[in-house]
From TrEMBL:
Name the UniProt record assigns to this protein: Alkanesulfonate monooxygenase SsuD/methylene tetrahydromethanopterin reductase-like flavin-dependent oxidoreductase (Luciferase family)
InterPro entries to which the protein is assigned, alphabetical: Bact_Lucif_Oxidored (IPR050766), Luciferase-like_dom (IPR011251), Luciferase-like_sf (IPR036661)
Domain named Luciferase-like: residues: 9-250
Species per Swiss-Prot/TrEMBL record: Brooklawnia cerclae
Pfam families: Bac_luciferase
Higher taxonomy: Bacteria, Bacillati, Actinomycetota, Actinomycetes, Propionibacteriales
Signal peptide span: none
Length: 340
């Protein structure tokens, strides 16, 4: 059994060939797709976060709106770039969104990937401390966020407050109990996966990672998951972690599917550089008839090792088409693999 959700990048463009032509379209359709996915029996609605781009950049209003329109489906991010975040303000927003959803928030965070603007976090007023890298800054802010989500009281109260205070030190409000255990780290390497495990964060692994040994992508990702689980065990955490991976999977069941994805041009891993120094391996896409998909996916070692599968969806093709893709996977692929 696996939890199966979707991951949307929330792209929008004024192109007449897109069904998502504005930021308003992207936000409204994201909510509608989450509602549709819940009705189909999917388990999660996750969204990428990018700044200075025609994509979803401010996740908490969207997550809160989805939480108010749904009742069961997990809602989350994959991932929030912590280089841009104030962890104190973020803890308040996350707590509010989690309470609105009834405790369904699954918050993916990370150091982020290259953005549309060079060092865009500087425009948000943030600078790494002396001797720090931007990645160090992201990890430090993540540790601060984790501490805040534990709900500890730490702030000295005003002796003459506008409203009465409870006794003792104060904490950030609203506080949502349990959210601390639903934070995920988007790890691009084995070492950051182990670091996340040490801090008690779940593991979120994408369709790309650092190319650390030249093996096929799914094998390297399975090795990363094993490193994470071993580090979790060594840390002595009392609860079991969760692990999610992302895949592009398209069952070809009608003419529209064949038109969009039946060309077979992304059926192998690719190697490239996401910045000047980081060699990365990008996982293949899967597009085939359902019986062929079942055979192919059964050989994916990382899918076998994970408990949660996030399906990357082409959101610009519209809510109806993406709901069709999710339904085809849930009904024609997942049962044959024992995921349902």
């Amino acid at each position: 059994m696996k939890k199966i959700g979707f991951l949307s990048f929330g792209h929008w463009t004024p192109s007449p060939y897109s069904t998502t032509r504005s930021a308003s379209d992207a936000l409204g359709q994201s909510i509608d797709l989450a509602v549709a996915a819940e009705e189909l029996g999917a388990d999660g609605a996750y969204f990428r976060v990018h700044h200075f781009a025609r994509q979803l950049g401010s996740p908490f209003p969207l997550l809160a709106a989805i939480g108010a329109r749904t009742s069961r489906i997990e809602i989350g991010t994959g991932v929030i770039d912590m280089r841009y975040e104030n962890p104190f303000y973020m803890a308040e927003d996350a707590g509010a969104a989690d309470l609105i959803s009834g405790g369904r928030l699954q918050l993916g965070v990370s150091r982020g990937s290259p953005e549309q603007v060079a060092d865009g976090w500087r425009y948000f007023g943030y600078e790494p401390a002396e001797g720090q890298t931007a990645a160090d800054m992201a990890r430090e802010r993540t540790e601060t966020l984790l501490g805040l989500l534990e709900g500890r009281s730490f702030a000295d109260p005003n002796p003459h407050p506008m409203f009465p205070n409870p006794p003792g030190l104060l904490r950030l409000e609203p506080y949502s109990e349990g959210l601390r255990d639903r934070i995920w780290w988007g790890a691009g390497s084995n070492s950051t996966a182990a670091w996340a495990a040490g801090l008690g964060m779940n593991l979120m692994s994408s369709t790309l990672k650092d190319d650390e040994n030249g093996k096929p992508f799914h094998v390297q990702q399975a090795e990363q998951i094993q490193v994470f689980r071993e580090a979790w065990k060594a840390a002595g955490h009392e609860h079991e972690p969760r692990v999610s991976i992302s895949r592009s999977i398209f069952p070809l069941v009608n003419d529209q599917d064949w038109t969009y994805f039946g060309h077979g041009d992304q059926d192998s891993d690719q190697v490239g550089y996401i910045d000047a120094t980081t060699r990365s391996i990008f996982g293949r896409s899967y597009a085939a008839e359902p019986d062929v998909l079942v055979r192919q996916l059964a050989e994916d070692e990382a899918i076998a090792a994970a408990d949660t599968l996030l399906l990357t969806v082409p959101n610009q093709l519209g809510v109806e088409y993406n709901a069709h893709v999710i339904e085809a996977i849930l009904t024609e692929v997942a049962p044959e693999l024992g995921w349902r």
